[in-house]
Amino acid sequence: MSEIEQLLRPELRGRTPYGAPQLDVDVRLNTNESSYPVPDAVVRAVSAELADELSGLNRYPDREFTALRTALADYLATQAGVSFDPEQLWAGNGSNEVLQHLVQAFGGPERTALGFTPAYSMHPIITETLGTRWVDGQRDAQTFDLTVESAVEQAGEVDPNLVFLCSPNNPTGSALPFEVIEAMLDAAPRALVVVDEAYAEFARPGTPTALSLLADHPRLVVTRTMSKAFTLAGGRLGYLAAAPGIIDALRLVRLPYHLSTPTQTVARIALEHADLLLETVEAIKAQRDRIVAELTALGLAPVPSDANFVLFGGLADAPATWQALLDDGVLVRDVGIAHHLRVTAGTPQETSRFLAAMSRLVPAHMMTKENP
Ligand SMILES: *Cc1c(COP(=O)(O)O)cnc(C)c1O
């Protein structure tokens, strides 16, 4: 063990950092960002507001980001149809930071968090690096479904302090059966139940949101982000809705002034232009559905998706296909599930590039009896 490793907290020894490749290739479909740039009208509005504020950067930002919380409440009322008091909303530099605040406040030594793998890789990373025990719950190995019965049984065995549900789920793409959420609140009576809805805006019509359950469930938290549907991954703004008492607990662990003045402004102005920013959502969903249809026609096995990406199986050797796509200028994600890759739905042109590359690769790369 090196000298530094000896200094390091024991539970961090041997860990590798989160590291989706950031490569300079033509077609980047590996981190579920939007392929569409921020529209000019939003760029102009943000620039004008920032120009007025820059001389005021000698002062700390509004620690309570009051105007931004009001803008988030307005957005959820119009888009999701659920009304919140700004006191029920919280934000951070990406939803990863609000997830970190949750684990800081509600996890810790002697405490256990339960998630259902495969799900978002940052849930266990945030949990374990904060000294909380992580239990890898399971989904159906073939379909990646999580049934109420299985979720309840696993929660009963673990009796967790924190539960992470991800719906629509990354990396598999589909929304959870809605009944799992309330069943989990019953089956894990000591737990804070977190539903990560990073992809909610892309869900297929009729998919309910856990936001609608918050009024009746004080142990429920719903996290969302502006990184995906809002085409604002670089703006770093994630948020959550929960009971005011939970928000008070998060104030104990956040660093003072964690949201910079420019961050608050960019997000607030973007929310004022929500309709315009969300205009690309339908186009992205169309490309997602096209990927599912065309990969099926190629003989591969895509998972039905409520998100802006598709997980597909049927590959003989996923890392080899990942490399062959990269050699062809298309970057996708190897999420570590055997025989599967994940691809983000981009512009129609990017989708065409990906599908053309796949149809060239399929004969040699497909899993068959001879090529298992
Ligand atoms: C992309 C993603 C996030 C978003 O992270 P940010 O920090 O808001 O950029 C959160 N949860 C899931 C499941 C995601 O896939």
From TrEMBL:
Record field: catalytic activity: L-histidinol phosphate + 2-oxoglutarate = 3-(imidazol-4-yl)-2-oxopropyl phosphate + L-glutamate
Write down the top EC class of this protein: transferase
Which key words are in the record? Amino-acid biosynthesis, Aminotransferase, Histidine biosynthesis, Pyridoxal phosphate, Transferase
Pathway, per Swiss-Prot/TrEMBL? Amino-acid biosynthesis; L-histidine biosynthesis; L-histidine from 5-phospho-alpha-D-ribose 1-diphosphate: step 7/9
Task: Please list the residue ranges annotated as the Aminotransferase class I/classII large domain.
Answer: 27-356
Question: Gene3D superfamilies from the xrefs?
Answer: Aspartate Aminotransferase, domain 1, Type I PLP-dependent aspartate aminotransferase-like (Major domain)
Show the segment(s) annotated as Disordered.
1-21
Cofactors: pyridoxal 5'-phosphate
**Residues modified to N6-(pyridoxal phosphate)lysine:** 228
Query: Which ranges are annotated Basic and acidic residues under compositional bias?
Result: 1-14
Protein's UniProt keywords contain Transferase: yes
The Swiss-Prot or TrEMBL record annotates one GO molecular function as: histidinol-phosphate transaminase activity
| InterPro entries from the UniProt entry | Aminotransferase_I/II_large, HisP_aminotrans, PyrdxlP-dep_Trfase, PyrdxlP-dep_Trfase_major, PyrdxlP-dep_Trfase_small
Membership in a protein family: Belongs to the class-II pyridoxal-phosphate-dependent aminotransferase family. Histidinol-phosphate aminotransferase subfamily.
Write the protein's name: Histidinol-phosphate aminotransferase
Organism, by scientific name, is Janibacter alittae
Q: What is the lineage of its organism?
A: Bacteria, Bacillati, Actinomycetota, Actinomycetes, Micrococcales
